[in-house]
Amino acid sequence: MTTYMPTLSRALAMVLCWMCMASGPAQAQLTALVAVEPTARKAAHSILRSSAETGLSKAAGQSVALTTSEDLADVMRATRSAGHDIFIGPAQVAASALQRGYELVGATQKSDTYLLVGLPPINDVAAMKGRRLYLPQQDSLYTYMARGMLNEAGLSFQDLRAVQYEKFPQAGLTALILGTADATVVREDDWAEWSAVHQGAARVLATSQPVPGGFSVVVKKDLPADVRSRLAQWFGASSYASGLPPVVVRSEAVEYRRVAELGLFTPTSLPGVSRVTAREAQTLQAQGATLVDTRTEKEFKTKRIRGAVFAAYVEKSLKDVAFNAAQDDFQALDKLQNLDKNQPVIFACNGAECWKSYKAAKVAAAKGFKSVYWLRGGLPEWDTTGLPTEGG
């Protein structure tokens, strides 16, 4: 007995240990967030929270807690920090999350087109300078569309006399009639209905590319594949029972990328500067152009375009086409040896989301450089194209 009991105890302990390891740690609760656009309040209020939580929990095989928010600025911060396992919201919420470890389930409506419309005296977007713009809250999809259409014309919200933020997008058309605004952004369907009644009262200044409509749903990529699959099936076939419109459209990824660019990325063009692709930049470099890397020294030493020279653009100004260059420091450009203002120069940084090369190219052109090129895609485009790099 004296030898049997310890042996039995050890065996029992081993069995219990094996059982604990087999069962694994207790599963953590998943969280889902419904982000509400000003125009989607009615659809959001129809969602039965308890029913949605029950359905999602059953699909996921573990508890899911659902919350709703109308504070889009807070929601966007949550996407950047991957603060929830599931996001259900307008296209800009999904677009932000898709860059940060999420995958797309789909959208509840077909894609929409947005229009920037203005009073008849305004002939084009460039003529919006010094005018008044009516928009919903700052992080609404309408505001993203407006920023993008202004950016393409080389304008910023800072170039306008006033930007009025209100709750209801359709009220912007009323503001045009009342003379309290000069322009607004509306969905194409709303414009068609309104302009048929108010013929000649306003004109279309710019038209967006298609944007995913209704709610878009994304889930974290690091969730188990079977969990993601079951959640996708629930959103596509069973969510209607909880008041959430079913996901019926699988919008193109490029549509979400466009939305992300409108809110976060540099403009697609820069007046006075030639935008080039990675291969075009390589050709120019081979012909004697200087390729300037404007990133930090640490980034430059870690990995860079082969043959690039280092000139950090120390950025403190706003990421905006109307940035104040006086707030930034680009003395490094003046210290580059053998850099001739009559020779072509190419500026690059960390891709379309990085403003350093955009600002550097604009500053260089203002300083009298004759042939200024901008590699908007920067090192990421160069690398994915398969062109040579160095460092590290």
UniProtKB/TrEMBL annotation:
<comment type="similarity">
    <text>Belongs to the bacterial solute-binding protein SsuA/TauA family.</text>
</comment>
<dbReference type="Pfam" id="PF12974">
    <property type="entry name" value="Phosphonate-bd"/>
</dbReference>
<protein>
    <submittedName>
        <fullName>Rhodanese-like domain-containing protein</fullName>
    </submittedName>
</protein>
<dbReference type="InterPro" id="IPR001763">
    <property type="entry name" value="Rhodanese-like_dom"/>
</dbReference>
<feature type="domain" description="Rhodanese">
    <location>
        <begin position="285"/>
        <end position="391"/>
    </location>
</feature>
<dbReference type="InterPro" id="IPR036873">
    <property type="entry name" value="Rhodanese-like_dom_sf"/>
</dbReference>
<dbReference type="Pfam" id="PF00581">
    <property type="entry name" value="Rhodanese"/>
</dbReference>
<keyword id="KW-0732">Signal</keyword>
<feature type="signal peptide">
    <location>
        <begin position="1"/>
        <end position="28"/>
    </location>
</feature>
